[in-house]
């Protein structure tokens, strides 16, 4: 059973998303802020992180940065949900809290399927003396942003 780390400071939303994800046959681990989520992820890396943006102690945007900076965790896919709009977090996909649950379910399935496909595809060998470039696509409400890190 695949594990999803669910992060939100609002217990009602944790309960709602937990119920949806468990009905989809995922194991759910809860955290109430980014700091707690980072600690949990470091102890037991999940297959997906679903996080709120605005939270106390460490927000979802900082959590994304911390996960991407960690060599063991940088490939974990992330979904940010927020009522405040898309924060354009590196490597994260966005879904508004006001979206229908079916949209959230579909995004979870697509993100995990894409993650599976990436793991099954052997990495291309970079030519000698070349700069390794990692490109991250950010998906929001109909717009696409792209950031490149060297």
UniProtKB/TrEMBL annotation:
<dbReference type="InterPro" id="IPR050595">
    <property type="entry name" value="Bact_response_regulator"/>
</dbReference>
<dbReference type="InterPro" id="IPR001789">
    <property type="entry name" value="Sig_transdc_resp-reg_receiver"/>
</dbReference>
<feature type="modified residue" description="4-aspartylphosphate">
    <location>
        <position position="52"/>
    </location>
</feature>
<dbReference type="InterPro" id="IPR011006">
    <property type="entry name" value="CheY-like_superfamily"/>
</dbReference>
<feature type="domain" description="Response regulatory">
    <location>
        <begin position="3"/>
        <end position="112"/>
    </location>
</feature>
<keyword id="KW-0597">Phosphoprotein</keyword>
<dbReference type="Pfam" id="PF00072">
    <property type="entry name" value="Response_reg"/>
</dbReference>
<protein>
    <submittedName>
        <fullName>Two-component system response regulator</fullName>
    </submittedName>
</protein>
<dbReference type="GO" id="GO:0000160">
    <property type="term" value="P:phosphorelay signal transduction system"/>
</dbReference>
């Amino acid at each position: 059973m695949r594990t999803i780390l669910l992060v939100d400071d609002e217990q009602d939303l944790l309960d709602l998303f937990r119920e949806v994800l468990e009905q989809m046959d995922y194991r759910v681990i809860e955290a109430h802020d980014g700091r707690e989520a980072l600690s949990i992820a470091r102890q037991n890396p999940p297959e997906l992180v679903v996080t709120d943006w605005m939270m106390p102690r460490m927000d979802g945007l900082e959590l994304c940065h911390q996960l991407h900076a960690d060599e063991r965790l940088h490939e974990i896919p992330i979904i940010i949900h927020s009522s405040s709009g898309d924060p354009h977090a590196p490597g994260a996909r966005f879904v508004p809290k006001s979206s229908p649950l079916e949209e959230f379910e579909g995004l979870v399935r697509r993100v995990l399927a894409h993650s599976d496909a990436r793991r099954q595809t052997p990495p291309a060998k970079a030519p000698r003396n070349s700069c390794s470039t990692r490109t991250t696509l950010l998906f929001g409400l109909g717009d696409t942003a792209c950031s490149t890190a060297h």
